[in-house]
């Protein structure tokens, strides 16, 4: 493995995201949903960098497998246009398909205990804000690469320009995580908003298992998993004080935390 390429990949994955998150954290101050400065922001910023290292390593490990599977299947069923008038509809088709796959993967993350064991790290933030966006368990991008992205690769022969446009649009994912009083009112189903996604992260049991959409909430509307935000509805977020990592090692071993905590307690009582 070429270490300088790897470091470049990590920087490429983390620095622009960290920059946009910082900008979003400043913008949140204009109209915050929760007044106080998010206690988790510093932790999340450092974790975002650690996560980028894990993401780059996993991509390295799974890329060969994914590419050879796609090539073995003939390199994608539907060729997407890379220029001309067919480019916009090609991009729209790719975007809608990927967003539907993201929606289904996210539902599975809440449905199956072993996936929730990882995804719960994202929900453990006691004060959701822009920096929560990349707070995911390090194994999850690898799982997505060999499921939904593999499927997209088998379905489409995707030119780099579409992959680039999709990656750029990925920055929008920071917006719904912002600690911001912003919803889209009657147009809630058109685009994910800070209010719509706050309900997905809500600490209140009546809000559990709804609003899974990544970009387009109409998937929730179609599959009946939507909860339309009330005009002034900005609930607190998180899973409770015992369900949040106390340090980075705990976040990196998140699905095993109960085991880890029991061992730490035993160590304390012995010492
Ligand atoms: Zn979720
Ligand atoms: Zn989220």
TrEMBL record:
Keyword Disulfide bond tagged: no
Q: What is the predominant subcellular site recorded for this chain?
A: membrane
- Tell me one GO biological process term: membrane lipid metabolic process
- Is Transmembrane included in the keywords of this UniProt record? yes
Question: Quick one: a GO cellular component term?
Answer: membrane
Superkingdom of origin organism:
Bacteria
UniProt entry keywords in alphabetical sequence: Lipid metabolism, Membrane, Oxidoreductase, Transmembrane, Transmembrane helix
GO MF assignments: glyceryl-ether monooxygenase activity; iron ion binding
Using the record's annotation, list all stretches that form the Fatty acid hydroxylase domain. 91-225
Q: Name one Pfam family in it.
A: FA_hydroxylase
Q: Where in the cell is it found?
A: Endomembrane system
Recorded topology in the membrane? Multi-pass membrane protein
TM region(s), chain numbering: 12-30, 42-65, 85-105, 145-172
Task: Write the protein's name.
Answer: Sterol desaturase/sphingolipid hydroxylase (Fatty acid hydroxylase superfamily)
């Amino acid at each position: 493995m070429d270490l300088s390429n790897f470091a470049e990949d990590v920087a490429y994955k983390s620095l622009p995201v960290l920059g946009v998150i910082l900008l979003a954290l400043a913008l949140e101050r204009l109209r915050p949903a929760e007044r106080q400065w998010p206690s988790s922001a510093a932790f999340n910023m450092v974790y975002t960098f650690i996560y980028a290292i894990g993401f780059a390593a996993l991509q390295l490990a799974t890329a060969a497998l994914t590419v050879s599977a796609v090539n073995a299947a003939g390199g994608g069923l539907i060729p997407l246009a890379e220029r001309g008038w067919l480019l916009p509809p090609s991009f729209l088709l790719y975007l809608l398909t990927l967003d539907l796959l993201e929606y289904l993967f996210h539902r599975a993350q809440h449905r199956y205990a072993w996936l929730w064991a990882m995804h719960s790290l994202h929900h453990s933030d006691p004060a959701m804000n822009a920096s929560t966006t990349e707070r995911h368990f390090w194994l999850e991008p690898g799982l997505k690469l060999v499921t939904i992205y593999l499927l997209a690769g088998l379905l489409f022969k995707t030119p780099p320009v579409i992959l680039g446009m999709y990656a750029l649009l990925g920055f929008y994912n920071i917006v719904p995580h912002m600690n911001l009083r912003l919803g889209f009112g009657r147009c809630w189903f058109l685009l994910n908003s800070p209010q719509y996604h706050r309900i997905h992260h809500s600490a209140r049991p009546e809000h559990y298992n709804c609003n899974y959409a990544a970009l387009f909430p109409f998937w929730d509307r179609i599959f009946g998993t939507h909860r339309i935000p009330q005009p002034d509805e900005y609930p607190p977020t998180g899973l409770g004080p015992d369900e949040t990592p106390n340090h980075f090692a705990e976040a990196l071993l998140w699905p095993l935390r109960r085991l880890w905590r029991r061992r730490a307690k035993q160590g304390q009582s012995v010492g």
